[in-house]
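So, can you check this one?
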Amino acid sequence: MHHIVADGWSRGILLKEFSLLYKSISNGSTHPLDAIEVQYTDFADWEKQWLKGENQQAQLDYWRKQLNNLPILNLPTDLPRPSIQNFKGRTDFFQLSAELTKQLKSLSRQQGVSLFMTLLTAFKILLHRYTGQKDIAVGSPIANRNLPEVKDIIGFFVNTLVLRSNLSNNPGFSDLLAQVKTTANQAYQHQELPFGKLVEELHPKRNLSQNPLFQVMIQFQNQAYQLQNSLTPEFAIPNLTLSQEWIDTGATKFDLTYHLIEREDGIMTAIEYRSDLFQADTIKRMFGHFQTLLTAIIKNPEARISELSILTNSESKQILFDWNKTATKLPSEDCFYQLFEQQVKQTPEEIAVATLAGDSLTYQELNKRANQLAIYLRFQGVVLETKVGICLERSPELIISLLAIQKTGATYIPLDPNYPRSRLKYIINNAQISTILTTTTIANNCLPASSENALICIERDLPRIESYSHSNLSVKINPQNLAYIIYTSGSTGKPKGTMITHQGLVNYLTWAITKYPIAEGNGFPVHSSISFDATITSLYTALLVGQKIILFPEENELETLKNVLNSDNNYSAIKLTPAHLKAVSSLSTSKKTVKPAQTFIIGGEALTKDAIAYWQKRAPNSQFINEYGPTETVVGCCAYEIPRKRLFNNQIPIGNPIANTQLYIMDEYLQPVPVGIPGELYIGGNGVARGYLQQPGLT
């Protein structure tokens, strides 16, 4: 029966009258039904008259105040929300056990509330934990048969109430339950105003993709209601068995509806949901969270809502432990420069650094020159964790300087010559940099004048530098010592100096050379600023496997990148941002397939499949990796190999944690959230920086 004909209460009346009539016809007796004095049309006339009186205004005033500035409930969905709601639905069935139901009824009696109020409060906590929203409104049907004359009439009497709760300030469950009780009782006292009339009067902002006023409904049918809607023994029909079954119509009016039906064996839960938004596994998980939440409430009804667990034991194990089994033993506790020195012994004559102009250094040459500069720096007072700025363009001298600073045990701080002087001055002063490696030209044209006394101009001091020994230094450096300090962009305020340890750097590099085919192909190009932490991958990984790094010139960077990506250079890997890919693809019109690199490592900003679609077609034999990590965790803390097919959404995942790294998604209460639920990303492990320079509070 469609609701335009009758409501759920009417079904019980129909069943009983059918039973009586069937038996009377079978027995040949007169039917036992009394004449009905009031018809549904009488009720409709009464309601029309009632809506004209003062009662309507009083109820409208209540609901206007109660539903003022009502927010949309934004449940996280598996699929993008269509612009127009299509009402396609599905119903899945679950069961709350008889024992849990018994405990919930006992708790409800202790708290002086109905079982429905307890279930409603738990449901709102679940929605809060799923959405992070604190202003939660749900719809709930009510029989609306307050007049004794209408209790036995078949028709549509049911009304819909909007039950709104405030979950701010992390209340205890019992306190929230008391609030829900008050709200529900007030709503019951104002239940006569038809929902359609309420929507008409409130004029909510309409959206074709969602229902007005509420998007989620909860319905509870207790045993008394079930008895009203079932064939009791007195109405049993001889030689005939009647049974009731739930019919899945394949449609739904709301995003989500929880039908909770109390039975002798517990509470049957029929969950009706939009199949264009949610997948069945998500609905099953959600019921598991509801069940876990109810169990936690039974154990400690005084707990704050943040303390009530919603994750099942198996989920907790999976999220906290199974997906974070990343422990990997590092080859040694050596620092990067020591691993490089080991590689020098293996490939002394191989090219380590090259430029597109044809300049190059072998591993042995690079190591010797770095040693000479390192000794020179030591004589200039550079020691363990001395802060040394490095302000150089991409050149062999840049790589020599990076290695030399690390060999001394000092900490390098990249200073991009292309940055505004004001930013360079801020970094120099904020970090209290004692020494800056640069050139005379850059010093004159780029650096603030106040830094002159701390300058080492490489070309000017080269004769003295070359007079020192080219043997490896013997400096005791702990993996927890700082390798470099790199400043954030400042997009959230002033730039912050992030202090990266040798352990964090080596952990990332060791993982990267096993994840990416760095040893294959024709080297690793460096085309981005050393002040951009993603450049770390390009600068260092090749030098650990006997490959070469290729330094691109500072001028015409985009044009150079376009030429590289449209050729068959077959580099080992190339590190790019989505912006790089979009910019170069807009300049490229060719459809010819190429292999510019074995692997495209993409990071620095959110990646969409639209950004890589062109290059996946152009470079079908290249691997594409989405690598994510904030500056505070050494370049990348997780990575995702992008498949060529099965990209259901435009947004590409950031993948799994790298070696010796843990990732957790947590809510505002620092509780792990279930799969598919938004939260904040927390990162642990070897790669996490020591902190922000001179900002312990922010750290």
About this structure: The mean pLDDT is 92. The CA atoms of residues 479 and 503 lie 5 Å apart. The first strand starts at residue 89 and ends at 96. The chain is about 35% helix and 15% strand.
